[in-house]
Design goal:
about 220 residues; alpha/beta; Rossmann fold; Arc Repressor Mutant, subunit A; 2 domains; six-stranded parallel sheet; 11 helices; 6 strands; globular
């Protein structure tokens, strides 16, 4: 039997932090190995214990969650970080992914969605709340033609752009294959080509790129 995942909770509201602790312990069977009320302390705890997963608020005293996430990823690159936040601003979303977070879920999400978000990032796929995807579209729709041209100018084919969009939304290779009516092996080839052309090395990096280009949630022509 494998050891339970080791989790650090970073949240300055005690009641919400208690709710997260109950969820990860009782519903998921994980072990909470540390708790922090500010970004600076979160970095210290993560450097001490190297957790598997961090649930991170973005609005924190002393150091915000985005900067803290960037520092945690620097010291603990294998640690998975899920932002649990109220922020729907385009700038917060893009900056969070650029800092290396692995998923973004809103605090008003119900229990089942938060569990789904945690399980998705633990499985190695990015997660965005549905409301976040919609907000990204509105925020990036202005000037989207120019941004898409920039993506196409990187040498990506139309099919690679489709795969990029779906990977960035957290779809599995099987789901992408089913949606595009291609084989899983072909999806894998497209993903490898995307990462080589864009010099990106993870699904999270692809998500940040797709956010910057305004591709997530939009239909590609």
């Amino acid at each position: 039997m494998s050891d339970p995942l080791r989790v650090v909770l970073v949240e300055d509201h005690p009641i919400f932090r208690e709710g997260l602790r109950a969820l990860v312990v009782s519903s998921l069977g994980y072990e909470v190995v540390g708790e922090a009320e500010d970004g600076q302390r979160a970095i210290e705890i993560c450097r001490e214990c190297g957790p598997d997963l961090v649930l991170m608020d973005l609005s924190l005293p002393r150091m915000n969650g985005i900067e803290a996430a960037d520092r945690i990823k620097e010291h603990c690159p294998r640690t998975i970080i899920l932002a649990v936040t109220v922020h729907l601003d385009d700038e917060y979303i893009a900056a969070a992914f650029q800092a290396g977070i692995d998923g973004y879920v809103l605090k008003d999400a119900n229990r089942s969605e938060i569990i789904e978000a945690i399980q998705t990032v633990v499985a190695g796929r990015p997660y965005l709340s549905p409301e976040v995807s919609e907000k990204v579209i509105r925020g990036f729709v202005k000037g989207s033609t120019e941004k898409e041209q920039g993506a196409a100018g990187s040498g990506l084919t139309p099919r690679e752009l489709e795969v990029l969009k779906l990977v960035a939304e957290g779809r599995t290779n099987r789901a992408i294959a089913d949606l595009l009516f291609i084989s899983v092996k072909t999806v894998e080839k497209h993903r490898a080509s995307l990462m080589a052309k864009l010099n990106l090395h993870s699904p999270q990096a692809l998500t940040a790129y797709a956010l910057d280009k305004g591709l997530i949630g939009r239909r590609l022509s």
